[in-house]
Design a protein that fits this description.
The complex is a heterodimer. Chain A is an all-alpha fold. Helix content of chain A is 78%, strand content 0%. Chain A has helices at 4-9, 12-44, 58-85, 88-120, 128-149, 153-168, 170-180, 200-232, 237-253. By secondary structure, chain B is an all-alpha fold. Chain B has helices at 3-21, 23-43, 48-71, 73-81, 83-89, 95-108, 110-123, 131-155, 162-170, 175-189, 195-224. The longest helix of chain B has 30 residues, at 195-224. The relative contact order of chain B is 0.15. Classes of the chains: A mainly alpha, B mainly alpha. Chain A binds chain B through residues 83, 135, 138-139, 141-143, 145-146, 149-150, 152, 154-155, 158-159, 162-163, 165-167, 169-170, 173, 181, and chain B through 151, 155-156, 158-159, 162, 165, 168-169, 171-173, 175-176, 179, 215, 218-219, 222-223, 226.
């Protein structure tokens, strides 16, 4: 089997050039779906019978929680690819995914707290799922802290990749914790196996928001990776050429 | 004796001997465990009823902190005097010596903590029915904690100030152990069958024995040889 395509993907230059082509389209989709989802969810979706308008925070909370978890997996997989195939690019992806994931985890916790105050009567409840999200945030912090603790970038990359992999052992527990403990948190609303227990009018904008958040995540990750690539490859010929070209363009505009 | 077992017993005996030579250091986690547990009634309340409710949690949190405190030294002295590198370049399996070292670590921290726990349980007025489950849970659980802490110790071994970072990266991994550990004690106080959470602790220890030495070996290779 021909593996050159796989190795080509590991090249920072290839990544930089091919994402340049896709960035405008991706930004457009992100902007459109986030705007549409927010307007639909916040403005037009029907009010909840019990919770009133406060339920609308799920349009941020649910997608953020999804991506907080998915982002951890992505980070761990990128780390594993880096460890196995020694690809530069996958370490860069891992490094850039950590702060984005941590921010989304924080957003999920924050929106949950804001929603919890009017609904449960308190900002913070020691419920299984909330606690697991907090632990997930700590896992992200650990990976971030370890990444920057080493003087050599390579050692930091490898160490945090292993830590991310070890942390994935906790992810199934985070998911399962909902079943294990008595919990205040409502059971999952969206299941792949059965119809959602939500009214379609409320559910459809949520889907749009989830799509928007995935695109936003991809966009944020790609932009962060591109910056990191330029930083790490700043001494190579192609980056110098790129800078010179940009300089020429600016001069021409003036 | 097969080659792999020799690696285990050699490092197991060596680390125990080293611990025996530095008895003062070995005693400090246990003293820490007892002292901090006595601070809780001073800080919260001396009321036996409320202490009884908090006792399982206090005992487990203290045991966790005590193992974390001692974990930092697991590989550091070997790293500094070069014997860790010798271990890494030796042709034998790396897993067995690591398994021996972690087992020795458990014998010098987890086991004394388990044996000292009835004393704290007494001071926190834990009902006597809970003593046996608590000790069984601590024996299995501190084993898990030792293996997990060893991963953290291996990750931070080459760093100057690794101890705080070690705490930061290992603490989230302790969550399942502490949940089921205190569940064992709580179930026995409530008069329910406590073998369920204890079995889960046992399963976690088995998984830790099987997987953690592999992870530790990989980590040591990655972080110490550059």
């Amino acid at each position: 089997m021909n593996w050159t395509w796989f190795y080509r993907m590991g090249s920072p230059l290839w990544f930089y050039q091919s994402t340049s082509r896709w960035l405008p389209l991706l930004s457009l989709i992100t902007l459109a779906s986030l705007t549409a989802g927010l307007a639909w969810g916040l403005g037009f979706a029907p009010e909840d019978a019990k919770q009133g308008n406060s339920f609308r925070i799920i349009y941020l909370h649910v997608p953020a929680s999804f991506l907080a978890l998915a982002g951890y997996f992505l980070m761990a997989i990128a780390g594993a690819i880096g460890l196995i195939w020694k690809m530069k690019l996958s370490y860069i992806v891992m490094k850039c995914a950590a702060p984005i994931g941590a921010a989304l985890t924080f957003l999920a916790l924050f929106t949950g707290a804001v929603w919890g105050k009017p609904t449960w009567g308190s900002y913070w409840v020691w419920d299984a799922r909330i606690t697991s999200m907090l632990i997930l945030l700590f896992l992200y912090f650990g990976v971030l802290a370890l990444q920057y603790a080493f003087n050599s970038q390579e050692a930091g990359n490898k160490a945090s990749a292993v830590l991310a992999l070890v942390g994935t052992v906790n992810i199934p527990i985070i998911y399962k914790s909902v079943d294990w403990w008595f919990t205040l948190h409502q059971p999952s609303t969206i299941k792949l196996t059965s119809a959602p227990s939500m009214h379609p009018d409320m559910f459809q904008p949520l889907l749009v928001m989830i799509l928007g958040f995935y695109c936003f995540y991809a966009l944020a990750l790609i932009l962060a990776v591109r910056v990191e690539i330029l930083k790490r490859e700043s001494k190579t010929a192609w980056v110098r050429e790129l800078v010179e070209q940009l300089g020429r363009q600016k001069m021409g505009a003036k | 004796m097969p080659e792999s077992n020799r690696g285990f017993s050699a490092y197991f005996r060596r680390d125990l001997l080293l611990a025996y030579r530095r008895r003062g250091e070995v005693a400090s986690p246990v003293i820490f465990f007892v002292m901090v547990a006595t601070l809780i009634p001073l800080g919260v309340t001396p009321e036996p009823d409320s202490l009884k409710e908090m006792a399982p949690g206090i005992i487990w949190v203290m045991a966790l902190l005590a193992t974390l405190l001692s974990a930092e030294g697991l590989f550091v002295s070997d790293y500094k005097d070069g014997s860790l590198e010798q271990l890494l370049i030796s042709p034998n399996l790396l897993v067995m010596p690591i398994f021996g070292k972690v087992t020795a670590h458990w014998i010098t921290t987890g086991l004394p903590l388990t044996l000292a726990s009835p004393l704290i349980a007494l001071m926190l007025s834990l009902p006597s029915v809970a003593y046996l489950p608590m000790m069984a849970g601590l024996a299995l659980g501190t084993g898990c904690l030792s293996f997990l802490a060893a991963i953290g110790a291996a990750l931070t071994v080459s760093l100057q100030r690794g101890s705080l970072l070690l705490t930061l990266i290992v603490m989230p991994l302790y969550m399942p152990v502490i949940i089921f550990g205190s569940a064992v004690v709580q179930y026995s106080i409530d008069g329910m069958a406590w073998s369920g959470p204890l079995a889960i602790l046992g399963a976690m220890l088995t998984a830790a024995i099987a997987l953690c030495p592999l992870a530790i070996a990989a980590v040591l290779r990655l972080t110490t040889i550059n």
